[in-house]
Amino acid sequence: MAINALMELELDEVQEFAFQLADLDLKERFKIDGLDSLNWALRKMAALDAKHLDARELANKEKARIQEWLDKETRSIDESRQFFTMLIEEYARTQRAKDPKWKASTPYGKVSFRKQQPKWEYDEKMALETIESAGLEQFVRVKKELDKVALKGSAQVLEDGRVVDPESGAIIEGILVVPQPEALKVEVSSE
Q1: Counting beta carbons within 10 angstroms of the beta carbon of residue 39, is it exposed (0 to 12), middle (13 to 18) or buried (19 or more)?
Q2: pTM over 0.85
């Protein structure tokens, strides 16, 4: 969203208003006393929102441009590293074929081999079906979690905020319903 000329005027007034507020005592500060002053404040907020959006859009464009540059630089660096890794690996494997305990150390780094653990590859669905059909339940993990939607739909809330199951009359420990005050909702039109 681009800031239009009217919004520029609103932003100029916001700057001027901020300077005036700095000089006023807190008791003498501006107050909204009717629809006109409310409309005035909402116009200022709409202009501020537009300025914020413009700044965010500019920042996102710059971030994208910088990220594109970084990706290009990183690709080039990664390709060069892969090339040198290939050269080092060729040399190291030929040396390893001659001496099974071969390793090297230079002022700029070390080259050696280390054993790795075997990699397990899973077809989760097939493995789970096989384990369950074989009765190997010790290899199956069941995740338990509170069904909050069902609980809210059927539980009763006492005046003190405790929750009760209406069928059994049992108080459900660990849950407290805390009333919330009304929240102010300000919708600023950006047109």
Answers
A1: exposed
A2: no
E strands, the chain, where? 104-106, 109-111, 156-157, 162-164, 171-176
pLDDT of residue 129: 92
Residues 6+ apart with CB under 8 A from 178: 161
Kind of pairing between the strands at 171-176 and 162-164: antiparallel
pLDDT in tens, 80-97: 999 999 999 999 999 999
Residue 181 confidence (pLDDT):
87
Name the token pair of 178: 């805390």
Rounded CA separation 131/20 (Å): 75
Contact (CB, 8 A) for 51 and 13: no
